[in-house]
UniProtKB/TrEMBL annotation:
GO terms for cellular component: cytosol; protein-DNA complex. It comes from the Bacteria. GO terms for biological process: regulation of DNA-templated transcription. Residues 124-220 form the OmpR/PhoB-type domain. Pfam families: Response_reg (PF00072), Trans_reg_C (PF00486). GO terms for molecular function: phosphorelay response regulator activity; transcription cis-regulatory region binding. Residues 124-220 bind DNA. It comes from Phyllobacterium myrsinacearum. The modification 4-aspartylphosphate is found at D51. This is DNA-binding response regulator. Keywords: DNA-binding, Phosphoprotein, Transcription, Transcription regulation, Two-component regulatory system. Residues 2-116 form the Response regulatory domain. Transmembrane segments: none annotated.
Length: 222
């Protein structure tokens, strides 16, 4: 899952970027509102973490422009302003959640998971497909009851596919979900990670089908 992190405090941004990457998210980090506005116009994200006090363009303006464009991407606001008025203003402009600084990373990650479930219209944190189980509370995969060992890229590929199970995902969309701006990769690199995930699913009824010219399909059975 690809996340846009917008935070002008460089130390905090670096800490959050590292923590989210360790949690298997692809992260693009920007430090001002103008760069955030540009990123949101040229890339698709699963979620946005947005500070309000930003240089060049404030976070509320970024949020307002995002919603005016018709985007429904989940937005979690981070701000030192924990007042009721500030929270109400952010939610009224289209934010989905609000977290006051300082905060614990565990709480932020839980809120991210909750928003991602809502974004995919899934109330149940568990997704089952044949012998494959994804536990949305821990973001771990189990195959036939055993914890799967996946690299961060493999995890990102399988997570995107299981949220879209039964529908075709193009190579380009999958690539944009797995790789951020600063990752040196192209759509062809996805083939390597898909191949590795296929190998780890061998022996089960869960398959990743390649539909020529269309993309990949995660499905149960032949």
């Amino acid at each position: 899952m690809r996340i846009l992190l917008v935070e002008d405090n460089r130390d905090l941004a670096s800490w959050l970027d590292k923590a989210l990457r360790q949690a298997h998210y692809a992260v693009d980090t920007v430090y001002n509102g103008e760069d955030a506005d540009h990123a949101l116009r040229v890339a698709d994200y699963a979620l946005v973490i947005l500070d309000l006090s930003l240089p060049k363009m404030d976070g509320m303006t970024v949020l307002r422009r995002l919603r005016k464009s018709g985007s429904t991407v989940p937005v979690i606001i981070l701000t030192a302003n924990a007042s009721l008025g500030g929270r109400v203003a952010g939610l009224d402009e289209g934010a989905d959640d609000y977290l006051a600084k300082p905060f614990e990373i565990a709480e932020l990650e839980a809120r991210i998971r909750a928003q991602l479930r809502r974004g995919h219209n899934r109330a149940n944190p568990e997704i089952e497909l044949g012998e494959l189980l994804f536990d949305g509370r821990t973001r771990q995969f189990f195959l036939s009851g055993k914890l799967m060992s996946l690299t961060p890229r493999e995890h990102a590929v399988l997570e995107h596919l299981i949220f879209k199970a039964g529908t075709t995902v193009s190579k380009t969309v999958l690539c944009e979900s797995v790789f951020g701006f600063n990752d040196l990769a192209d759509a062809n690199a996805i083939e390597i990670y898909v191949h590795r995930v296929r190998k780890k699913l061998e022996g089960s009824s869960v398959k990743i089908a390649t539909l020529r010219g269309m993309g990949y399909l995660l499905r149960h059975g032949e």
